[in-house]
Design goal:
The protein contains seven helices and ten strands. The protein has helices spanning 19-40, 73-94, 105-119, 139-148, 194-200, 240-246, 250-266; strands at residues 3-10, 47-55, 60-68, 123-129, 132-135, 151-166, 173-177, 185-188, 204-214, 220-230. A five-stranded antiparallel β-sheet has the order 2-3-1-4-5, covered by helices on one side. It has a five-stranded mixed β-barrel with strand order 6-7-8-10-9. α1 crosses α2 (73-94).
Length: 267
């Protein structure tokens, strides 16, 4: 039936769980299912999740059911695949096995967040997929951490809007906000670049240096900055339509010549 039940119980005789933990579990489950959907469909959202049952009696239970967002074959076929793959991933993480590479950093972080309140000892959580029950175990944190702990590095550059300059204490950092990709990238810089960084606040820049990537993530999250190139504002760029008007295209030149020839022939 493509249903997933999240069951939450308090620990040490506590009948109720905190609102914060309840929201954390639901948000993490939602994000994990949505990310799985996007992976399986090549980046296209295929379904929504509806709450079809909600009970407070011990254990507190939320029952979700997948609904395709359209009647297209690809959306309908993804409906069962998402729950099946979610079940497979839980099994792999419970047994400290590696998820396929297509499941990136954000998916693994969502699984970690799902385990957070359990690892902290505040509640017991289980997921029921159709009739199969999986416990949300603290060991999942160990498994996911191992899979995203490694880093890779490259020398290059990255573009973004420079904001959030921080020079307090021993920190000399700013953030750049790229037009696409990660929400922001943190950049460490040497004191010699401070004046450039200050002048560049609110401007688009190219940051050159050593880019650090987390495992399973195609975008850098940190740059050890060697230099900063401040890019011109949009208002400082030339008016391309005006420039275009300064030059005649080959076609317009031919038309002009044809008109002149016609006028000459008529004389």
């Amino acid at each position: 039936m493509n249903r997933i039940s999240l069951q939450l119980e308090g620990v040490e005789g506590r009948e109720n769980i905190s609102l914060e933990d309840f929201i954390t579990e639901l948000t993490s489950l939602k994000k994990t299912l949505e990310q799985t959907d996007l992976v399986l469909t090549g980046g296209r959202k295929s379904m929504e999740w509806e709450v079809v049952d909600l009970r407070h009696s011990s254990p507190a239970t939320v029952v979700l059911e997948a609904r395709p967002i359209s009647n297209t074959p690809w959306a309908i076929s993804a409906q069962s695949r998402v729950t099946d793959v979610f079940r497979e991933n839980l099994y792999l993480l419970e047994n400290n096995e590696i998820l396929p590479d297509r499941f990136g950093f954000q998916v693994l972080k969502a699984y970690q967040a799902l385990v957070g309140p359990v690892k902290a000892g505040r509640l017991v959580a289980t997921v029921k997929i159709d009739e199969e029950i999986h416990s949300i175990l603290p060991e999942i944190v160990i498994s996911t951490t191992q899979q995203i702990a490694t880093e890779t590095f490259s020398i290059g550059r990255y573009k973004g809007l420079l904001e959030f300059l921080n020079i307090h204490g021993n920190k000399s950092e700013f953030r750049i906000y790229p037009p696409a990709g990660p929400p922001f990238v943190t950049c460490h810089f040497d004191e010699s670049l401070l004046s450039i960084a200050q002048e560049a606040v609110g401007r688009n820049v190219l940051v050159y240096g050593k880019l650090a990537y987390r495992a399973r993530c195609p975008f850098p999250y940190y740059i050890n900055t060697d230099s900063i190139e401040v890019l011109p504002n949009d208002k400082d760029l030339p008016d391309w339509m005006a420039i275009k008007g300064l030059y005649s295209s080959p076609t317009s030149q031919l038309n002009s010549k044809s008109t002149i020839n016609e006028e000459n022939n008529g004389q």
